[in-house]
Amino acid sequence: xxxxxxxxxxxxxxxxxxxxxxxxxxxxxxxxxxxxxxxxxxxxxxxxxxxxxxxxxxxxxxxxxxxxxxxxxxxxxxxxxxxxxxxxxxxxxxxxxxxxxxxxxxxxxxxxxxxxxxxxxxxxxxxxxxxxxxxxxxxxxxxxxxxxxxxxxxxxxxxxxxxxxxxxxxxxxxxxxxxxxxxxxxxxxxxxxxxxxxxxxxxxxxxxxxxx
Length: 212
Known about the structure:
mainly alpha
């Protein structure tokens, strides 16, 4: 494993998180018609957005490494097919949870925003999984969907408790960008020669099969 590649992942994920936060914050400001009191306030607002994006990126990377550990343990406990089934079940439950749970327990409160959030997460997961499969192997489909849906839902629980749509958008957009980037670049972080020697063949085993 090349540590330089992992450092590259860390810094690029920080930049993606910061860019996602800046873009989301500025678009929300324009849509809401908000204005700042002068250039200094605007620069301070940009600095806050940048810092928030960096924090969201770090949070995303913590979830990413937690997923790698969970995946490693899951493959040690379950057979290959069994672990895939477990991931599919958890993915479906997580998606249904974020879309409909609060709708059922929220009384008269409207929860269309939760359904929209679930659709957005699902769409982002499908696009990321499609690209990941094109870059690697069909075996990457289930792990990518699991990470992009189940792990993202877990990471958004805190902001969902705030129950403010603007805060949810501000967190979820850079979070999805960071999660998608980390999943798409994951197969490049493993030394191919190491995989070849382990598999005893001239062709490296797909990363999502062996590591993720």
